[in-house]
Amino acid sequence: RPNGRTSSSRQSVDVAVKNPSVSEKPLTGNLDPFNLFCAYHLGIGPKKEYKPANLNEVARRFGQDPATVRQALKECGMDSASLLDRDFDMALAQLDIQVAPEGIDRMELAKSIYEDFQASPHVKRDWNKILENDRKENRKIFG
Hints:
Blueprint (H helix, E strand, L loop, with lengths): L7 H11 L14 H9 L13 H7 L4 H10 L4 H5 L5 H9 L7 H14 L7 H16 L1
Helix pairs in contact: 3-4, 6-7
């Protein structure tokens, strides 16, 4: 989404702040959930390249401090704790972006991935049951 500015880092801030996703209210720091998802979880860089980024790098890219980005992730259910309770394969989504053929617009590809993420059911994990099943499986394999 070009905005006529020449600085790529400034453009990233403008894109993240001025083009909020349709039907979604901006988050803390006026961040856009879709752009945050793309940058933080899918590893889409400012030039639509695959470039995994940590919280500090995403914050810098969007002209925010890490605490603001962390709060925004929490507000839209994209923080690490919330992801554990989603039936969504984030690793596969990241792989789809990483191996996208040359000429494929990663942001366009990310739209359907984001829709799938939003539609994914919330599943409260029973960690005790999961751990018990793992123990049983380990006993079968390792004795």
